[in-house]
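Thread title: Can someone regenerate the structure for this chain?

I was given the following input by a collaborator and told the matching structure tokens would be attached. They weren't. Posting the sequence so someone can regenerate them.
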Amino acid sequence: MARPTLLTDLVAQQIVSAVEKGATREGAAHSARVGESTLYEWQRRGLEGEEPYASFVDRLREAEGRLQVTLVTKLLSIAVDPAPEHIPSQVKAIEALLTRLGWGKEQTAARESAANNVARDASTDLQVVESVAAAIRSRMAKAA
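Best answer:
Regenerated them for you:
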């Protein structure tokens, strides 16, 4: 007889909520009292399409996507209405989180593949973020 899964609705929600707030998947699992090896097993089974793990993996991806949107929105708001004393630390923190979430990797890969054909729309997001970051750095330099 198979052991019942520890992946309950409550545990899944705790992990997804922590990821959406900026925790790594591993850190989120620890906060829900789930070991890393268990999380990795759930992810493996989810990627193979087994339920309830597949739904859980989808929810994790959605949470990471919502976090990326939140971070990019914050970065853009700093560019529009900066508080000079907080800009350097905010921008560095946001860039670090976006990097950890793979923003640069995904967008750079998309930009490289677009270079082989005419459609460059996939790189637009990265170019916007890079432009905003450059504008923020310029404002920081002028304020200093």
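The chain is about 75% helix and 0% strand.
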